[in-house]
Records
---
Amino acid sequence: MSGGKILLFGAAVAVSCLFLVQPARAQITDPSEVAALKAIRNKLSDPMNNLRTWSDGDPCSSNWKGVICFNSTLADGYLHVEELQLLKMNFSGSLAPEFGQLSYLKILDVMWNQISGSIPKEIGSIKSLKLLLLNGNQLSGPLPVELGYLPNLDRIQIDTNNISGPIPKSFALLNKTRHFHMNNNSLSGQIPPELSRLPSLVHLLLDNNNLTGFLPPELSRTPSLLILQLDNNNFSGASIPASYGGMAKLLKMSLRNCNLQGEVPDLSSIPQLGYLDLSQNQLTGNIPSNKLSNNITTIDLSSNSLTGPIPENFSRLPNLQRLSLENNHLIGSVPTAVWKSIVFTGNRTLLLDFQNNNLTNISTSLNPPANVSILLYGNPVCSNANQLNIEQYCQYQLINQSSGSSGNSKISCGPCPSDQGYEYNPLSPLSCFCSIPLEVGYRLKSPGFSNFLPYMDDFDGYLSSGLELALYQVFIDSFIWEEGPRLRMKLKLFPNNTNLFNDSEVLRIRGMFTGWLIPDSGIFGPYELLNFTLGFYSNVISRSGSRLSAGAVVGIVLASVALAVALSTLVTIFLMRRRFKYQAASKRRSISRIPIKVDGVKGFTFEEMALATNNFSSSSQVGQGGYGKVYRGILADGTVVAIKRALEGSLQGSREFFTEIELLSRLHHRNLVSLVGYCDEENEQMLVYEFMPNGTLRDHLSAKSKEALSFAMRLSIALGSARGILYLHTEADPPIFHRDIKASNILLDSRFVAKVADFGLSRLAPAPNIEGDLPGHVSTVVKGTPGYLDPEYFLTHKLTDKSDVYSLGVVFLELLTGRQPILHGKNIVREVTLAYQSGMIFSAIDSRMGSYPSDCVEKFISLALRCCQDETDSRPSMPEVVRELDILWRMTPETDTSPLESVVGGFKDAKAVPESSSLVETQPYVSSDVSGSNLISSVIPPITPR
């Protein structure tokens, strides 16, 4: 059949379909589902009268303020309910059996109401159901066996109800279910060993029930289990199976107050175990002496009958936050080295609770860091507290879980509009910018830590990434620990660079929470949405709940069907033609790639790259960014390199890849990371750079750094970084704006010389226009890293050289304070500005830096804050920044930089250059170490081009 005939045939089919679907005008939703929805409504009590329209017409085209009812168009011409949510509106009553008639339902969400009665067994017939969310009600009765026949169920949440009876063995058929949240009920009987066959199960939360019997050894064979939480049950006389020590993927084991007996099993073979709670049982014997995972944050073996000494293995756990061994019969010495492997900075703390044991002596003097709390009350060693100088550790203390608040910035701002909920976002790059946030009640149901403060920044990153928001849009307003322990938070989500969220964004964010679309996290565990406070945005739900009027939906349905049929014929023709072209193109592909040959840059084969990285093994990976993963590789000649392997979504066309390599090959400067080579074959693209053995500047400013940088070293790193950026701005061909300057993009070589890296977000500087004038900016989509973003660029999308100045200024503040740009809701620019204005600036200086010349530090801070001015014109230019840093370097007294003196060796030698030198006068601060040009440095001697 020719193309023209096919098109006519398609048009005829489209016209006929118009008549076929017209009867649907009389009813939008499937009639059987309409009847089911009305029956469901009649079983519920609606104290706020939100369901008043259910009895009139089509429920899913009515305005339900308290209900979200999503539909999908199906081939039978009707709309079918896919998602039914009763918002937290104090509904009471019961769940109707007619739920089983919603045969296309994917999400059933009635969380946090006052619904009573039993769970209808008819729900087990909804084969499409993915999320069954019944938690936070007053449901009672047994779990229906029929729920085990839901082939697509991902999550079952029945927690915080009054459900009783056994866990049905049929639940072992739920092969796609990952989350079993059944805690806080009255479930009884034995945990079915058959649950170990569930291939997808990651979270098994059965705490606070009446479960009895033995702990099934078979659970150790559950292939994907990450969290096992069985606290507050009654496995009377049962022991912990030794096989639990082989749970290869387990992150958390919590068996508190389960009436368990026997010995503590050896759990040293669980490689990622981060949280262990076996407290309040009847465990006996010695504590195993084998070392636990380095990930462990919490060990609670308190209130048992353990004997013997406290083993040395607790002294080599770098992430430990809490070691609770109180109320046992432990003997021997108080351990004095538990904290030796821990780096204490910021909010890092360690609690060692040894109260009420039989510890009799201290082998060496007890002199812990200030961040360590030791509790020894009730031990014989306290009878000699005065002689041992340990009185402060022998006082009785009751440790409570903490609460906290991120707190708002104290920078003075005028008032936001008082109506509609406007407020400042403390994290916004724009100072004093008013917007209306969404408020979210959020709870971590099984976190893998005891102290949240050191993990707040990681949580900000995890949640903002999961919600597809910028880091500065997510603000932790407050948090509090609850029974469990569970961590409850109040979050505020702010719009991005605007005063309000639009309707679609409100619904998208809400859907991410209610659809459990935020990826799971090992350390933070499962979460639950407690409330989603719309406030000003409440009309969004009422507008979107009905979606469209009945007539409008019918019109769209009819038009869509007709258009789809007509287009399908055209698409068929197009695909057939494209298929022939693709087959021909595939044959030519191997000869159509653009050969890349760039002087000074070597082309590597995929085989060479795989060999250099041990086939891209995880042990070779040293980092990961937006471009892809970074590996440490050793080439055939022994050269150590860094290999950046592009993710599939980052691949470019061959011509674009060649252009980038050609550009990078022309960048030669002592303070830029050099390109060594590339690989462009096997559908892979890789860039090969010189390897920086001392990692990133961020690494050396973080709490994990074992050796602090001196002031001289920090100043030399600042100067080197500034010179690299100046080269990009003024001497690269063509000039480049970096656009993502941050501490993790400043690398340090073996002598701690700073080298700027990662031009993945870089943009060419503006070129002269037809009249020969040079524009001052490049208009571009805003990209970069929160905390480093130039506020004016963020607001106007105009990228200038001063945008890099702002970001570099933030790096300078990091060098001076050791803080991250955004930490616990506090912006480094605002905090340092406040300290500077109040005359308390030296209180903000990093205490790990050691001694420093106060006048130099004060000038450095002044320069950094001028770089971070909101207004572009108030910032210094890059040449001015380099000039002032060089003057500071010359002012810095000669100091002993101890083991890292080589960092600044080259610069110290340069001080021999007289200030009156003609080199300084004729070429003031234009460059340093520019390979391949006649430019000379005003500070260090020229070097031979690479």
---
Amino acid sequence: MNYINVILPIPLQKLFTYKITEAEATFLKPGMRVAVEFGKSKIFTALVYEVHKTAPIGYEAKEIHQILDETPIVNEIQLKHWDWIASYYMCSLGEVFRAALPSAFLLESETEIQLVTGFSKENELSDDEFLIFEALQHQSQISIFKIIEILGKKSVFPIIKELIEKNVIVVKEQIYEQYKPKLVKYIRLTDKWNSNDKLAELLNLLNRAKKQRALILSFFQLQSAKKPIKVSKLQDTSNCSIAVIKSLVDKGIFEYYYIQKDRINFNGKSSEIKELTSYQETAYSEIKDTFKTKQVTLLKGVTSSGKTEIYVKLIKELLKEGKQVLYLLPEIALTAQLIERLQYYFGEYLSVFHSKYSMNERVEVWNNVLANKQKAQLILGARSSLFLPFSNIGLIIVDEEHEPSFKQYDPAPRYHARDAAIVLAKEYNAKVLVGSATPSIETYFNAQQGKYGLVELNRRFGDVLLPEIELVDIKEKHRKKRMKGHFSDRLIEMITDALNEKEQVILFQNRRGFAPVVECETCCVSPQCPQCDVSLTFHSFRNELRCHYCGYKQAMPHNCRACGSEKLNTKGFGTEQIELELQQLFPDSNIGRMDLDTTRGKYGYQKIIGQFEAQEIDILVGTQMLSKGLDFANVSLVGILNADNMLNFPDFRSHERSYQLMVQVAGRAGRAQKRGKVAIQTFNPYHQILQQVSTNSYEEMFKEQLDERWQYHYPPFYRIIKIILRHKDFNRVEEGANWLGKSLVSIFKEHVLGPTTPGISKIRNYYIRHIIIKIPQKQSLGVTKNNIIRVKNSFQAIKEFRSIKFNIDVDNY
């Protein structure tokens, strides 16, 4: 008897065994999808992990329903990488499977289907199809599980697929059968008329139909180019209606045909890459040298030093060798600007993969990478592009490697894209280049220790000086009444000077909305989110209060709900408020805003970045998405409106993150010829981090932070595993956290912190508790994880604690 072990897209820590026939065993390979029944009634898409002959112990294996693929859609190196992610980040293979594949590849029995309005060709349906059609007449939507009951058979996926192809039903969720290739409609002469000597006879035949005759002449003109002719192109050229074309199709003179096209194509010019400066050339040679002995190299180049041009030269070399290259970016906003630059050099090799692309577009990129097509040799994407089915990757570039966006927090797997990329590259014997002006403490520490290669680039492109940074003491300005709203007189003066010079300004405030708190002046009560432990943020554009954690919103009240007073005041400020103040201070300037609210659409980023590049926007206000590697030639001034918010965050990385964020934002200024200026508004200009930012002293910040990390047992000297407990019952989660804390202390002694209540102790009605375990360098990581899993299993065996959500986050920073 033959069996397969499969991965199911569910958070259970094991593989599942199913029975297959001899013929299926010869056909199936690891990485192919099969539809299987799980539990009493549910049907899932599963992925074949291995084919074998060992029967499961303790239960009778079920048979599979059907095979969904002809060839594997996931390769063996990918599966090996998934194993590492599941093991290292302490999650199940099923969770990795769900995160890795586009949702179009996952089909479940709970998937709902709906009827397409206006379908009337019932006589074309088979008996089974008609039964489903009839059921949908009485119910607006039904699940696949319900269809199994209606038809009395389990293998219903082919029937559903047939109904989708006939355009009878649509699937409510995004699933495999919903992926439709983009078909472009073309036209050609039928075999009977498809020759030049038939032209005279054809024109003679259509002598009385002037429009049809003119259309035929237009068609032969287009045909001389010897390219397929689109129906739309023929219609435009001949200036005829579609009815004329249809009448020629009905006469058997023309016929339609379709060609499958990818939804996104980049038309590159394959231009010659720019000449590198002598400093860039030196850095490039050093990178090549370090790659001879090290798998990972850190390129530490100051902002605007031209790191991208070095990447471009490396990419060109790898593409010549026929290798694939993965270019990882932390922010979708960055891909928008970088696409244009890379398209210019590698258009025909470039594909982009991130969550703002539609499900169909992502499936196409997946299939192109799987088939190793030319147009998918260079992949530009956010962290999820790490899971694509590469076959011969040669280089992974992790740009702005210090960015927190590379870390996945929810749902599992809670992986870090930079670390997972290094492991993936090892599987392919490929190289990794991590680049940043402000590397993370861990990466720079690894480079200093000789684990990674280190190449430094300390000159800006074109020898432009680093921006001049000025700290503005707003405590003093408030005392002397020199503030207008949230702007000091010095910042207003600098903005005015830049605008007079026809230059652009970027203003950074790391909070969206109008104000984070609305407070009653009489009783000091502020509206709270009913589901989370946070005050609601006021958004003036829609005149509503919003929770940035769960999405809850309500209209802005006219009076206080506690005391009835109409005196409501706002505390703090966000990007919306800054935008309104700027409109009053600089009425003749165009103000733009770039935050999560203004970039929701697929092309939201491109639109704002395009307007700013075209100098249609004079002042751009934004959150931290502005800080990440964007390149604008005409920006001469950057203003940071409140540096203290970041510095006073209760986190061991807050000083490092503040330094990185401020240096990165400052680096957007003066990137062309003229030296830029940066104004940082703060209540504490003598803070050590602000002083280090103003002098661009990365080494000083690094040494200071490293000393603190050593003293207080934090990375890179200790590893951290965070356990997050969540439950809707406050007492239950409190009791569970205390029990778990005591159990962990008995094993790990003083290396356990907690249980603690986080700053935001309730989100979406779930109360939260944290426990942190620190792991010294000499302590075995594997043994530590096994002990945690053993305690977790004991915890979940206790009836009262079984319902508590238990999440493990390895390297949670």
---
Amino acid sequence: MDPAAIAARLALAADSGAAASTAVAPIVEELFVREGPGAGPVDRPVRISGLVSFQGDARTLTERDLTGLAARLVREVLGAVAPGEAKPAGDEGRAVVDALARTLHALGTVDLNDVQAVRLGPERFARHLAVAAPDAGRDLSAGAARLHGALLELACLHMLRFFTRRSAFVARALADSGGRQSESAADTTSTTTSTTSATSADDAAFEERYAHDIVTGHDHLTIYGIDLAHSPDSWPLDSAYLSLEAETDAGPSAPADQALSGRERVLLRGVAGSGKTTLVQWLAVSVARGELPQELEGLRGRVPFVLQVRRFGRDGFPGPADFLASVRHPRAGGQPAGWAERVLSAGRGLLLVDGVDEVPEEDRERLRHALRRSLARYPGNVWLVTSRPSAVRENWLASEGFTELRLAPLSREGVAAFIQRWHAAAREDAAADLDRLDAYEQTLLDAVRINRELGRLATNPLMCGLICALHRDRRGYLPRGRKALYDAALSMLLERRDRERSMPPPDGIDLTQEPKIQLLQKLARWMLVNGRAEMDRPTAVSTLAQHLPAIPHAAQQGGPEEIYRHLLNRTGLLREPAPGAVDFVHRTFQDYLSARAVVERHDFDFLIEHAHQDDWEEVIRMSVALARPDECAYILDGLIAARKGSRPVQARHRKLLAAACLEHATELDPEVRARVHRYTRDLVRPTTLEGARALGWIGPIVLEMLPDPTVASDEEAHRLAVTATSIADDRAIDYLVRLRDRTSWAVRSELASAWRRYDTDRYADEIIAHLDERELDFPVSNLEELHALRRLGGRPCVQIAGAFTPRRLVEGLVADRLTELWLAYDLGTHLDLQWLAAFPRLHTLRLSSRNAGVTGVPEGVQVIVTGP
């Protein structure tokens, strides 16, 4: 019987209380610790991770027992649902058991207590576990995945029954929550949630109109501060939105929809432009349309309220009846009396409170108390509150059960996706340049990958939107000098965004752009001079106090402490990464503002003195971009001049840096330009392999000056490949792409052997996938590379350079492709190689001499022993 069909039968059986459902209760209860005789009554919520029986002091199940338990559960369920019928095939059945065991193991890591789990209900609790074990069902077929999901939901149903029987406190807590979940400790056959209340026909009709308003009102993305004739600042959300990444202190980042899944209360922090408002809009529109990803199915049927704090500000957090009026919704006067109250009382609301930082600081505590009152009065609703990181203290709402998440910077893939979607949205406008947008898009994708400053700046939707707009406005070209790009970004962050949203200053301080820049430069210069990437708050305040008297427009509006808070909360350039510390949200802005300070103070000797240090490289480039012609000449001559005591690698770095700075000099004496070329022209065309490696040691700056490898001979191409692969920076991939189609074995071998230095999947897709396979060993040093090579279809000749178990190699290598295998690591105790029989086409095995004592090599496989 098809696994998907079994899953459907299982769902029906569970709903009817058939044997498929009831038979698993004793098995499921083995997952949890049983209290011994004399155990006292439970009078508080208990964390699920403390109840499980496969970890902790009361452990009774081993990891192996857990897999056995999952197998028993599968056998019981399938036997009851489809007696006498065919079950999933052996491999597929084992895969379902393994996936179920791994998902059940997540019970030991979830951050829920028993009351929270029961309130979720079995379906949402199952999804919560699935999110906690994202790789559990990765290799399942579609039908097996459905079966796994149905089995997990059935198991969760019995878990919640167990929690309720175990603890009278759970039943009381549910009763006190306003009836959202009706649960009887005596009735163990039903623990389903009741999330809807009787809604009048008027309510239903209004909700339909309101959902339409949400879609039309929020189904667009706006980036404030872009004032460009050829680049409108608003486009459809469907075209532009991409899943942002969110992270917690406890784990790595994950797509925001996964991070939000199963959480009813979230405080989301993000710097200016990171996408907080965009995420709020997307959630509201997705819920209003009923078009949700699987991870957020628990939001289906809810009513979204987009509550922008700047709209009600000093008036305080509104009551339900005033939700729509407070944000000036056009239908505020037409809502049925008591409608919002009924929605919240029934626990059907999705409250999106956007921009806590936009209420005056002295009013934020009052806002928190108002939120707490609403949370207590209307339990069961889902809340998302957003803020810039520094506006509210750590754990601001933790006592109310809020989880804190942070929006992570865009990944390389995220930046590319944003650029693609931005241009897709731009194509929907009837603009005169429609025929050029495809070329604009490709040019910009290439530029962001290869250009260091663009790659460092494009870390959030705000900056990506600015770059896209500037690029289009200049008809496919970004400024050769970066000054225009940074000045546009500073203008947007420091002045235009708040002004274009008609926002009065919440802290009463109204500074124009130039005083803000001057003050920020003082902080940036202090970090530069002291070799710091951040400074403590007292030092920042002290630095501002030192310079405020020279900036009367700022000094008139507040003292150093008030000005510090204003710069921190309203400029979008500063953040507090830890209590009492401050840094710039983008290092590139710190470098740019430092360069402005250097040029204004004529600190060029100080600059040149540190030119050999990697972390000064960007400041020097930007200083050249900002300097006048005679100042540029002074800097460049200083870089190429011999310096007493300078090591050869430092001298080479200075000269290459001088060459890289040429493109940023708007006006420069031709003689100076010629001198720089004369001193550097031979540095980027190495004539020996040793010289090629030495050039690579200097760092990523070399990538921008290497010659075009597509017109080089095979010998020179090999040396260029050696240089580029010596640079352990993913930007090298963009240069190496132009070498991947070479037939030269030396070039191909160099590219293949460099895989471990770069992002695994990207290098696999852009380099490994394109290399000619003939006579080439493809090295694998870790599990990620093994999986990536399998995804590419495997290769005939593989070199295993990392320690693997035989099972992982059998599962990871493609059996019908492998002909030559090189085990280039110490096999340890795994000297019996009978497992090689899994590869029918294998004819050559290479081993190091330390593994010469192997046994069980299949007949017909030639063994070649190499050096140690």
